[in-house]
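The freezer alarm interrupted the setup, so I double-checked each line after restarting. Inputs confirmed:
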Amino acid sequence: MSSDTVPALAVEELVAGYGGVTALDRVSISAGTAAITAVLGANGAGKTTLLRAVSGMIRPRRGRILLDGTDQAGRSPEQMVRAGVAHVPEGQGVIPELTVEENLRVGMMSWPRGRSRADRAAALDEAFGRFPPLAGRRRKLAATLSGGERQMLVIARALLARPHVLLLDEPSLGLAPRVMAQVMDLVVRLSREHGITIILVEQNARSALAIADHGVVLNLGRVVVSADAATLAADVALRHHYLGF
Amino acid sequence: MVEFLQFTLSGIAFGMIYAAIALSLVLIWRGTRLVNFAQGAMAMLTTYVAIEVVYRTGSYWMGFAAALAAGLVLGAVCELTVIRPTLNKPPLNAVIVTIGLLILIEGLAGIFFGGQYRSFPTAFSQTGLKINGTPLGVSRYDVFVAAAVLVTTLALAATFRYTSAGLRMRAAAFNATIARLSGIRVARVLTVGWALAGLLGALAGVLVSPSTFLYPNSMDTIFVFGFTAAVIGGLDSPLGAVVGGLLLGLALSYAGGYLHNGANLVPLVALVILVVVLMVRPDGLFSATQVRRV
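Predicted 3D structure, all chains:
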């Protein structure tokens, strides 16, 4: 466990972009262990870019990405997942050509070589235990799953990497309201019961703030506000201006 | 009827060689979305390695093994040295690099091994098999060719299907982003894919050369047929590559046997088959990807 003074994830003065476009301009966020941080803002605010930079999918131009106090900026996704960061990108997260079980096995590819077959089988059983609907479809192609089941599968796969920090990009996108509520419940349990630090990017600011401890609002690549989730939800002017509810 | 049987069996024997080339192209296509135009030239080069080893050791099998090993190494080296730098560039760059590689390898082969036709030895008799005095149109060697490709294909399929390394390769091919985020070192997987493709190419080169002679351009036609077979099968599908190879082998064998002046028409028939398949099913017969609807 890290001490309270060192955040599980801290992003400092991060600058990142694509070609000539700067998508993130000196963004700083700090997330304590097991906290849920909601990252909010309009399309193009830089939310997805932030997650992509943290997981190593794009290389930041400047700034630091501290995991438990150690700078990891500039590492590849393969290295970041081994350092404890799992990233569930928006949409299309399952590999439809693989079976449900194979999708889950992909989640264990970051494990050290030495881990036994039995360890892996136990981890799979645990995943199926946590997501019973997946267990019945173990040998079916992921293409046959419903939207909610797919979201379960991607989260289950990310958890198999045993992350300390989980980056979720629009996990509720395209889901029915009831299924969306289940996904949000799951996110809460991951932080409360498993101690996973969660960065949650959401279009749906209202439901994200309902479960988050902390909220960060991005606009045009800059942090506009960073405050308690309850404070943000209570700020009517801010909500109208940036969050649309 | 006897004729038909003969054409069928010899079609299968050649079809298996096209299938091996097609499969090597599919392996690379799945990893890098690139048609490796140098695949035939690479196969030719490894076959020269085989022939040198056979002459020096006197053992066909030493040459056979040397070719496969050379294929693995050559595939990996090509990927690491000339393909890797093109991967984040426009796709056409990589295509042009493979064409350059084709010209380079064929030129080097001419310089080091000479341009003359060389006969390649076989481990089995090439005289036609007979049943009750009726010639079957295939030899013991043809049976060996078919079996060698079949065994290699099945071994590859089993590796892909049942091993962790195979799952890594499939995951990287289907979705490189998810694969990397899951900790799969995709760059390494690509190198392995090229190495395996090099091995399959080497296998095809060694197997076909007793029938075609070996010279710097000897694999050009085989490559074109292998490419046709891969496209018929859908470029994406290993099963499609094998079926495409067999279909093409059979079609060309029947065309060569039954059509007037058929032997000269074979390349034309291959072209016609390719055009017809692409008109009816633009994604090939076995492609997993859906036709895009706009």
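Quick read of the result. The interface with chain B takes residues 55, 57, 76-78, 81-82, 86-87, 89, 92-93, 95-98, 102, 105-107, 109-111, 157, 161 of chain A (CB under 8 Å).
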